[in-house]
Amino acid sequence: DFGRSSELAFVVEPSDDIAVQEQPLILYCQVEGIQPITITWRKNGVMIVDSENAFMLANGSLYVSRFQRVRGDGSSDEGEYDCMAQNHYGLVVSRKAKIQAATMSDFHIHPQNAVVEEGGVARFQCQIHGLPEPVILWHKNSMPVNTDNERYTLLPKGVLQITGLRAEDSGIFHCVATNIANVKFSREARLTVSGSHSTVYKDPTILVGPENLTLTVHQTAVLECIATGNPRPIVSWSRLDGRPIGVEGIQVLGTGNLMISDLTVQHSGIYVCAANKPGTRVRRTAQGSLVVQAPAEFVQHPQSISRPVGTTAIFTCVAQGEPPPQITWLRNGQILETSDHIKLKNNNSTLSIYGINQTDEAIYQCLAENSAGSTQASARLTVLWADGLPSPPQAVRAETVSATTIQVSWEKPLQNTKEIIGYVLHIRKAADPVEMEYQEAVSKSTFQQLVTDLEPSTSYSFYIKAYTSRGASKASEVTVVSTLGEVPAMPSLFIKVINSTAVQATWEPSIKLGQHEGFKLYYRKVHLAQYTGPVLLASNVTAYNITHLDASVVYEVKLLAYNQHGDGDSTVRFVSLRETVERTVLNPPCDCVKDEQNNKTSTTGIIIGIHIGVTCIIFCILFLMFGYRGRLLMCKNVQEQLSTPQIPRSQRSTASLVLNGAARRDRDERDLNGKQLDMNELERLFPASPSQEQQDKGMTSAHSPPAPHDDTQISTLPLDEFSIIEEQPDPLPKAPRGGSPPAPAPDHGSANEG
């Protein structure tokens, strides 16, 4: 509790008010904290000096003796007032209180005469502006309207509704507007109720629908909806977004007006009034929007903190409201300006102070404000400072060593050096914000530090602090130095032989090259000292063709990247064209374009090959089936040949030739149908007998030259060694003119049956 009361804070703040002309006004302000506390007042940001008209009371409140909207000198007591409180630790400012004068204008809408048939609906309206909002009452025939009559409905905005009209409702009506500023009367209007209740059908009609409203939480909203028709329509309400309206705080006034009490932000939306003909789907609708605002309020208040010199202080202030509030920070009552070591983040919700020092000790305030209201919260920053701490390190120097290294040196502080336990070097890119700073710790006996892994051609800032067990010294002076520029790294180089007199050098651009302006390419014969080049190439070039080379020697190719800081290290490659020449002689060059096209169609070729393979397997199966059937038929024909009388060897040889020729022709025909007769299989099944072989050899040598199948042996087998299918053979064809008997033809019909 002591800690709580020691903080400078407001117990009571001034609030918005409406003042009456020529009447006194009091604005309250009460503060707690460590004394002495000084309280002052401001109006529209200007300090108020005590005068006869306005002065401060002993409790800190402001007293205005005679409030005037406009004074003789043109000034006004209207405006925004705030209270400021200050003690030894800082200053705080209260929320702004808006003070307005009570007023009332003339009526800008008066009630109008109306003639309505009996049973109908009458509506009178009058409107007037004023501060505070005037209260409007209705009089009939100079007497207040009886509000106990349920057929009479008075709405807050100056509307009088009369339903189910009767003859006694006729009369003269006017309204009376009242607030603290004045009382005013409207013009009179006559209501005439004519005839009797009509039974003629009339479609539902909405005479007046809901208007758009903007209100604040906890207020009351009245959405008007008055409808006519015969039969009398039923009025219902809904939300356009489909959400339920609810029942808490909801009330229906009269025959269809919707009243919502104690508004919340969740009540915002578009409301639809519907007039329905009873028992049907005939309806008419009207709609109006309701916007509920909520003044700013804090979800998280900033908290007072204590921090040692050189550390970071962070305040967090989170506010909510509708519309979302704007957050502003004050330092001892003045708008806080950001800098290198003071940053605002997260839509000003987070205040960070880096490398704090004694000048940062103050009271920091968070102001949250929107169109519905404002609020404030404060917190104090205490900077811890111990007596006897070392003075700042001296003579801080920074020297550039390379493109990525800087050496920082310093001298020990002038005072209080005995308790030093070490130093901390603070490092930051000069262009970066303070929060990007990082530190390196150094022992107390070291007075220089080599800072590595820096970026080339970049400015860095450095400062040193000496640390003891009780705290840190103040920061030394800041020194800024830049690293050297860096030459590009080695590019990756590849050599491709194009032909016997040309090669292509290619390389890959890499981020490791850094900032480079281009490339330099050199080449030479290895036995020569002189290079050809440099060939200067732009930074976006990645290939270069070297032509008119000698195929009998080895070449050296060198590539490097360069920039404004100089040439980088080179990449060297050796290439020989001799092997290319030898390969060209031994193997003619391939048609690369054709190979590329073949590669593009490799997938299609694989698919076609699979189909061909499957087809071949099917044909092989068919071949085996029909080949076996053909061998059986051939066995039958041979048996018939063996049973016929022997013919001379000369004729037999010729017949053999004819047989072979017929077999070949028949095979050609079977090739077309996928069916073949293997003569070698026939010769294997029926080898010739030795005696007959000798006789055949003698006749062949005597009468004719050797036949192509002179090694074929035909022998007679007993019929019981194999089975013959009984089928009717086709007639034998006639012998050709040479006199040789025809060869037995296979039965195509039988083969086709398979």
TrEMBL record:
Residues 663-673 have a biased composition (Basic and acidic residues). Residues 730-745 have a biased composition (Pro residues). The keyword Transmembrane helix applies. The keyword Cell cycle does not apply. Gene3D superfamilies: Immunoglobulins (2.60.40.10). It is found in: Membrane. Residues 392-486, 487-583 form the Fibronectin type-III domain. Residues 8-100, 105-192, 204-287, 295-382 form the Ig-like domain. It comes from the Eukaryota. Signal peptide: none annotated. GO terms for cellular component: membrane. This is Immunoglobulin superfamily DCC subclass member 3. Residues 643-754 are annotated as: Disordered. It comes from Neopipo cinnamomea. GO terms for biological process: cell-cell adhesion.
